[in-house]
Specification:
heterodimer; A: 83 residues; mainly alpha; Non-ribosomal Peptide Synthetase Peptidyl Carrier Protein, Chain A; 0% strand; B: 446 residues; Chloramphenicol Acetyltransferase; 2 domains; 15 strands; 37% helix
Amino acid sequence: MGVTTLKEIENILSQEIATILSVDSSKVILDTPFHEMGIDSLSFVELLVFIEKTFNIKLMESGLTSENFRTVRSLASSISRMS
Amino acid sequence: MGIINFPSKKRYLTGIDWIIHALDYITKKATGTGNTSQIVLELEGSPQKDKFRNCLDSLIGKYPVLHGRPSRDYNLAPYWKISFTKQRQPLPLKISYLDNTSSEANIFSILERIANLKFIGNQEHLFFHLIYAENKTYVAMTFDHRLFDALGAEAFLEMLQNEWKNKDNSFCNKDIIVPAESAHLCNWRRKFIAGQQANRAFLKMGENAPPRVLPLPASLNNLGFRFKVIPFDKYQTDLILENAYKEAGYLMLMPYVLASAIWIMHKLFTKRNIKSGDYVVPVSIDMRPTDKVQQKVFFNHVSFLFFLVRPDEADHFPVLIKSIKQQLYDQVKSELPRNFQEASLLMRILPLPILSNIMRLYLKGQIASFSFSNVGESAYKSSSFMGKKILNILHMPRVPVPPGLGIFFHQFQNKLNVVLSFLEGILSDEEANELIHTLQSRLGAK
């Protein structure tokens, strides 16, 4: 994937989470922790797989802390730094 | 509201439905009773039994699918035959009254006995028991897994609750509650490719087959299942979630509880001196979006992940967690659950005796070391049932035989419940108690 702005990454992640949860993307709030959105282990791994396929980044063993994963905003920020 | 008119008297079975039918066949052949389960609502107080009976009769009358039976089409696709015209007996409802000297243990042994009751004939798939104890009531719904999966059974109880509230259940109108499933007699290429992917995964799992299993009793006929239940309170559940976070990572509860289950089983198997084979654990996962369960109540909407753990991995918890997480990632990445769903459509052509043999081919006569699921938050959304507060919801599933052993996690109102289900004779009572105590310690809730 080419150079992507932080905003674009946030939008891409929001769209994917909306797809995973079968909700409208407007319901995905950037600063809501994933566990409060209804994301569970399986859907979280689906998101990580999506990130690997889209941004070519393997987050599972990346050494990122849980704070980096917690919200769309923090995750997008981590992806932006690693891209 | 009269009978809901369905678009068809045939609801074609999906591949997953047919797999569940095969598990039912296997278990019925082994023990005389099929793959049934029981869901129990523990209520504060006593709902009115006449009102319960009326609501139940009213709800059941609207859904003839509940009295259906499997059949096969001329094109060989199996379907659930729904009869609209036949006059039916009311759904079985038994009521028990316990005096105030009845202990929790006594109540539990009644629930255990009920969970092992057989259905009569091929069109009975559901019955209810109401157990009135001193300040509590237990509503036990025993159901055929061919008709409901775990979340579907919970959603059905919510329909009963809506019936009591005179709430329109028509969010589950004819096209949603029993959607007209197609016969899936197209897109063969996609199914075959999915079959290749699934086959590759199963062959890998069978490399060191047969898996590690507990020996079954010499005679299985009419053996029932025993259950051990751990209902954790909110404080204990929060401790477990915190430990999952620390040891497995953010949102990794499922790998954590699965690893804990394998870890305690490994201790048991080692103590029993069972040394050959790896641990193979299929994990059922719900394929419906969370808010769509109420629209797909009947039949099965699950698929499976399959975990293979070597005994040396099971010795060390951090290694075990890492292995499970990696397998979870790899299987989601390779879309194994979806491939399995798709490929299983090809299996429907097979009669159940043949399919049940094929299912055991990969693992040389076995299906798994034990069954497992982590259902997650309940599909029953209300906090009460027929005007009475729900204290807890428990699942008590019989497990396919083999392996005759399973561990199941479930959450209700942010509290975790664990159920150990085992065929009589496969574990002693002491071993079962030890497993439960070890699990509590492993989860960090003791």
